[in-house]
Amino acid sequence: MILFLTIVSGLAWSLVYIEAIRIGFRDRSYAIPAAALALNFAWEVIYASRSAVTGLSAQGVFNIAWALADVLVLYTFFRFGRSELPAWVTPKLFVGWGVLLGIAAFAVQGLFVVEFGWDDAARYAAFLQNLLMSGLFIAMFVARGGTRSQSLLIAVAKWIGTLAPTVVYGWYGNSPLVLGVGALCSIFDLAYIGLLWRARAASAVAGPGSS
Description:
This protein is mainly α. The chain is 82% helix and 0% strand.
């Protein structure tokens, strides 16, 4: 069951990244919130590298695949992301902000390892940044005034991709922290799915000429 849930999570998150890449190039924007993207990329690079050294597991294979996919998601962010910000944010300032986010993300991941050790750090960091991402997706919906450069597929796949390891590490792993944070992720993810669904339904009723 644990291997099955690991594969479900791996495939679901792979769909998140594939769809984010597709939407990013289609809409000339980015589809994953910046802070969450930085933390995810740092997490994946660190634990993919560790998996390559210590021996590949099913999770390790997915970590490597996600890290490679995230390179393209990052490209869409740096290539198109400045257009989402006010005019006073110059291209140099935008790139500097993005690099600073990346440095901070790697520092945070490193501090988790120092504080908790490799195994617990991987789980605690993953679920906490996942909760951050869940909240930031809702903030993205609000900031963009609707569903622009967002996707129900990303929302649903993220929810499933988080729910599966919540069961693995929270329930089977007997971790109240992981179980609680994972449950909060589900609440935010389902709220985001509801927002996207409602907005799309309203747009369909209004017709193609609506603003």
